[in-house]
Amino acid sequence: QKLDLSSLTKLPSVETPPWSATNPFLDETLRDVQPSPINPFSSFFEEQERRSKSSSVSSAPGKSQRDSLIILHQEPDTISFHETNRTVTHTDAVEQLKQLQIGDPDRVSSPTLPDDDPVMPCNLDAALFNLTPAQPKDGWPMMLRIPEKKNIMSSRHWGPIYVKLTNSGCIQLFYEKGLEKPFRELKLEINHEISERKLQNYDENGRIHSVRLDRTTYKEKKKYQPKPAIAHTAEREQIIKLGTTDYEDFLSFITAVQDTLMNLPASSTDLSTVGLNYQEEEITVDVRDEFHGILAKGDSVILQHSVLTHIYVLSFLSGLAECRLGLNDILIKGSEIVARQDIMPTTTTKWIKLYSCRFHSCVDEDMFNNSRIILFNPLDACRFELMRFRTVFAEKTLPFTLRTAASINGAEVEVQSWLMMSTGFSSNHDPLTQVPCENVMIRYPVPAEWVKNFRRESVLGEKSLKAKVNKGATFGSASLSGSEPVMRVTLGTAKYEHAFNAIVWRINRLPDKNSASGHPHCFFCHLELGSDREVPSSFVRYVDVEFDMPTTSASKATVRSISVEDKTDVRKWVNYSAHYSYKVKLSSANHHG
């Protein structure tokens, strides 16, 4: 049947449509129609070649419909490229397409992988090791919370001690540095966990960094409200609480304890055993990235960086359970063999290189070295660090750029920063899927000679100068000298914090919900010193930046599969988070005498 071309030019009528559309899947007359064995693409080219060779057109049954379609649009017999003097037939073009091979940029023999940074040195491990923020120490001067347990009848206070961590996994507490015998020893165990970092009140100068060591027990409980459900909850018992006003010592101590906990040997009683029986089995994998780096002044180019990935596991499995974890490791690309129910949803197709892999004692390292398969018997109802490794940063820029300029003119000091979201960061491309930066902290180191300018005595003790959004910094009363510092911020708050020995600009969320992502934010501080003699001969020429990003990965490390032997009804969860900590050099530091 020929198409009625005149019907295509008629205006559609509301009362009577020009044609009636039928659903081919519901049409009874089409039930007996079988799929055609003819390949429409190859048959079309073959027919065109026959038509070009033969002048006579023979009509065959089954081709009438195709002929009618050809009337509307006649295809040329050749494919024309940009060169006007070069033409090839369809047969040659098809042969060229068959011979075409698409290269894989992720293959191991490729000179550069997508996650490779051309500016990174060849000895990657040595470069990354030097960027580790807190190296282990022989000991740390700390403060101990006394008494260790809360008591309604007594108040608690901080007492100075000295802490050591032995190779055997014991925390030793000394009254002071240099003593041989500790007054208390704590043996680290696999069910010990380090709590979240906190800032709490310390003295009239400000707050103190504190952290707890808890004995954590996970139990399965049945809830009835708002609906019946099985939940695995954690019960924490505080063992010790330590604090310090030195942020570097604080981070160094936490890192040392985490390393020791990971290296603790796992006995057979700690693993999943036959006698266990959970009503609801589940396994949770937490992928946490730590980014450390140094950025250039001005354009915030990443000069040096390190990405350390920690993978934690918490499982509730009945009986003996052998688990396999599949990552987007470039060395296993194309050789994965995973059951359908073990595949985990991912948001990236990127494959990465793993450097300096370290494993918990429950992992079969020989299996990983031979086949890159992460095979392990998880600890029962215990959150532990399964493995850690280093990677190259997957982005070319950070979520936001920060440019800071400092100027010293005699006894006057000015510091100004401009902050703007980076368009080159992948998460910032689409505002609907943008992941915010949370708990943003930008620290401007303050020399010890200038601290008194940012503090005033009040009825309740000393008070720090604080600046809020669209509100100049004041102490609440006029200063006697009239040379009160001036601080302003267009987002968040800024004040001097003794725990960091710096002015800290805090922003809860970036980008702000009430401003456009491309809107810049500013920090400004003006300080008049009593004399230019108060200007130190040398001072820190960088700004510290620290923030968190939930549900994202700085390394693009992805859990592609979680397999539990002989179990198909296990609930599986994967959580991602990233913590960024880096230094940005000052754009300028002019000193005019």
Could you give the order of strands across the largest sheet?
Answer: 14-16-12-11-30-28-19-26-25-22-23
Instruction: Briefly note the structural class of the backbone.
Output: mainly beta
Please describe the biggest sheet, giving its number of strands, its sense, and whether it closes into a barrel: 11 strands, mixed
**Count of distinct strands:** 31
Q: Spans of 5+ residues with little confidence (pLDDT < 50)? A: 7-14, 55-86, 108-130, 475-482
What is the CATH superfamily label of the largest domain? Mu homology domain, subdomain B
Percent helix range: 10-25%
- Determine the N-to-C terminus distance: 95 Å
General description of the model:
With 593 residues, the protein is mainly β. It has 3 domains: 134-264, Pleckstrin-homology domain (PH domain)/Phosphotyrosine-binding domain (PTB) (PH-domain like, Roll), CATH 2.30.29; 267-394 and 558-572, Sandwich (Immunoglobulin-like); 400-552, Sandwich (Immunoglobulin-like), CATH 2.60.40. 12% of the residues lie in helices and 39% in strands. It has 7 helices and 31 strands. The protein has helices at 5-9, 40-53, 64-72, 90-99, 124-130, 247-263, 365-371, and strands spanning 78-80, 87-89, 140-146, 157-165, 170-174, 184-187, 192-194, 198-203, 206-223, 229-244, 282-295, 302-316, 323-327, 355-359, 374-376, 384-391, 400-409, 412-421, 437-445, 455-458, 461-464, 466-468, 471-474, 486-489, 493-497, 502-510, 521-528, 542-550, 559-564, 571-585, 588-592. The strands form 6 sheets. It has an 11-stranded mixed β-sheet. Strands 3, 4, 5, 6, 7, 8, 9 and 10 form an 8-stranded antiparallel β-sheet that branches. The radius of gyration is 33 Å and the shape is globular. Residues 1-68 are annotated as: Disordered. InterPro entries: Adaptor_comp_med_subunit, AP2_Mu_C_sf, MHD, SHD_dom, STON2_MHD, Stonin, Stonin2_N.
